[in-house]
Amino acid sequence: MLAAAGIGSRRACESLIASGRVMVDGQVARLGAKANPETAAIQVDGRRVAVRDPIAPIYLLLNKPIGYTCTAHDAHAERTVYDLLKNVNERIFTVGRLDEDTAGLLLLTNDGNFAYRLAHPRFHLPKTYQAVVRGIISPWALTDLRCGILLEDGMTAPADAQLIETDRKRNVSVIQLTLYEGRNRQVRRMLNAVGFKALALTRMRFGNLTLTGLAPGTYRKLQSGEVKELMMLAAQHEANAEIPPQAEMPCDEANE
Fold first, then answer.
1. Which residue has the higher pLDDT, 185 or 54?
2. Which of 114, 147, 190, 251 is the one with CA 20 to 30 A from 127?
């Protein structure tokens, strides 16, 4: 109900309820409780929520430049991704986030269920990043990334790590990294853990979507077929609990 009213993604709305910020008819709402949207008085942080008639869903693919934050209301942000959406009048929100210093593919929508199924880790949708790192990356570092990295918040899932090119004169490497989970600044932390700092980071792919034909700072609407395929991919990955082939290979064999 809150997601349909444009408050945020389903996951964000669940967090609001769990933190006691949602009231229904003067009582603190509980997760799983039912309310009649036609008669119930619903408030978030003391402000009445107007449950509107269903609105047409919006699905956008943005090629985010660096220097833009994904938070709509950030007093410290000079620029947000919403500044790039000149002709969008409906309230929309991002599907997950990219850091201010990370560029690339970002999805935005007003469909809470869509955002939930794409952003929640349980659905394991692959996200592919291209990173420029300082130094000539070693085969052993790539193997570690493929086997999983122990970070301060636990072991990461195995990733698909590929070397794209090296430039010994500039002392940099370009690698492609596909993740099947999403943690805060995960790519940068994984690279730091194997001894390489990311100088530039771009998300190139999200599920079946790429940045092909989309200049930085521009966006386009998703086609209905693309939306359906994304949802099908999420359902398949949840059902099969897919993991990349590297994860099935013991790390001692992968080193050989």
1. 185
2. 251
